[in-house]
Amino acid sequence: MEEKAANRAMLRHFVASAFSFDKPDHLAVAVSGGGDSLALLHLMAEWAAEERIKLEAVTVNHGLRPEAAHEAQFVAEVSERLKVKHTTLNWSGYNGAGNLQDAARRARYRLMAEWAKPRGISTIALAHTADDQAETFFMRLARASGIDGLTGMQRRRISDGITWVRPLLMQERFELRQYLRELREPWIDDPSNDDEAFDRVKARRAMEELTKLGIDVHVVGRVMDHLGQVRSALDFATHDHALECVREEHGDLIIDRRRFAEGSPEVNRRLVAAALRWIASADYGPRGMKLQEFLSAMMRGRDATLHGVRLLGGKESFRLTREHAAVAGAVALRGGVWDGRWIIEGVDNKEFIIRALGEDGLLQLGERPADAPPRETLAASPAVFDGNTLISAPLAGHGVAHARLIHPKAGFYTSLLSH
Question: H-helix or E-strand containing 415?
């Protein structure tokens, strides 16, 4: 009995400590119906009741298995018993192309973020465990990932305007199932967890063999913590280097050529990868040879395009700006966010639209002011149109509208230290 009580107390401690320095008054927990997420639901329901915090549960039905609807209903019933409001989100966007698990994962996070924001929920708890972390390590090791990949999942991460928290990332899967057994609470195992067609299941099987050598989830976790410290040091080095050689202008990043060359290859690679992500407002950046080719073009002073970003070479500096083709179809209405990072103010007419200035807008603009950004930057900048007629081009100083950068990843320098 004492051992059971100690296990429950430890799990409750990890949940409480995950929110000790940032305790929201309204949050959600993602629940699939499996043992890990059901355990987290029970733990968070108990904690939220004690703390008088409003808690909701959310389940994503990917529509890929006939049992999924039943599993979502099962979670709804458990949530109702725990007096936690539950919502099921349905996904039907898979077209059969690309990696199914990756597409489902991206859709899951996007759907949950879109669901949470209108409800005033800015924090969602996820039930990843130490086992998930170790499996992720070996999957990424098989892909020859670098430091960023091998550090695995973060305990706290901000993406899509949501803080994703993993309170149980240090706990093993069997501990959570034991906790549910003690509560005499059932759970539903996803049959895909035993399908060796998936890389994660292969990694799980490999882990079973590696334990014979003493390589278990705790050993892998310690290795990942060490790598995380290396990653943190590289992040700070990249941040400091950026302060020396990068400046922001109209949403572009201008890099001093001489000072950039003084950085180490790895720090420069990280800086440019981060710059591409920041300008494109992307969660992930390019890797491998494409990024290396882009860096090579920078060092040779050549123009290049990658990840929706244009590189404009120069004798003294490089300019990284949004690629027009990447935003040619982006449209926003008054008050809306354009290209995920721009708000246009000073527009009163509801019929006006916001889109890229483009070549047609540049022609209507006429002669550009001497202090205006380059033509490539202006073409990909937000502008106000009435039909096809240019009303205002804020970055060119044309018209009365103003463009304000509200980047989801904050300022560029800040983004280098956040993941």
Answer: helix 412-415
What residues form DSSP beta bridges with 405?
A: 342
* Closest among 318, 14, 323, 38 to 180, alpha carbons compared: 38
* Structure-block tokens of residue 63: 């529509």
3-state secondary structure of 309: strand
pLDDT interval class at 195 (50, 70, 90): low
Q: Which residues pair with 404 in a beta bridge?
A: 343
Task: For residue 255, give the 3-state DSSP assignment.
Answer: strand
Residues of the chain with CATH 3.30.465: 245-324+411-415
Closest CA to 87 of 40, 133, 30: 30
- Taking CB atoms within 8 Å and a gap of at least 24, the contacts of 258-265 are 258/316, 260/298, 260/318, 261/299, 264/237
Question: At 144, which amino acid appears?
Answer: A
Residue 312 β-bridge partners: 319
Give 320-355 pLDDT, tens digit per residue: 999 999 999 999 998 889 999 999 999 888 889 999
Distance CA 55, CA 29 (A): 8
The CATH homologous superfamily to which domain 2-222 belongs is: HUPs (3.40.50.620)
CB 169 within 8 A of CB 153: yes
| 274, containing H or E segment | helix 265-280
**pTM score of the predicted model:** 0.77
CATH of domain 245-324+411-415: 3.30.465
Provide the residue type at 298 as one letter: M
- Measured CA to CA, the distance from residue 25 to residue 123 in angstroms comes to 10
Are 327 and 356 in contact, with CB atoms under 8 Å apart? yes
CATH 3.40.50.620 in the chain, residue ranges: 2-222
| 26 within 8 A of 54, measured Cβ to Cβ | yes
Cross-strand pairs, 321: 310
